Amino acid sequence: MATQLKPFVPPPKDDAPRRRAPWRQRLVDAERGITLGVRGDSTFFLHFFLATIIVGAAFVLGIGAVEWAVVLLALTLVLSAEMFNQVLRSVHDALGHQFDDSLKKAIRIGTAAVFLTMIGALITLALVFGRHVYEIFVE
Fold this sequence. Notes:
By secondary structure, the protein is an all-alpha fold. The chain contains 4 helices and no strands. The longest helix has 37 residues, at 102-138. It starts with 21 loop residues before the first helix and ends with a helix. 7% of the residues are buried.
């Protein structure tokens, strides 16, 4: 006796689409934003390369818990400033033809903000690491 195939019947659709909880959707958006930000600009490679060197130096120098917090905060601030600068550049790419030079000025100010953040992080890291390097060479 031959078996008969039944036609495919799709499952019934719910009236309301499935939605994530707001906190889960925010986490998904954050993950996608980080991915887009890191892949969108080659300067992140340089930032992550230098961050790896800084974290390695921190391990070698044996910095304390508070100093770890300061180092990680400095690195996070630089990456965040770079992400905000990327947002400005994305807005310029999408809407730049509709504005005059005011959007270009905003991008320059954003780039300056990244530069100032990097200088502040560099000074902070020099103070944290300088004390430990001084102790190595003096004692």
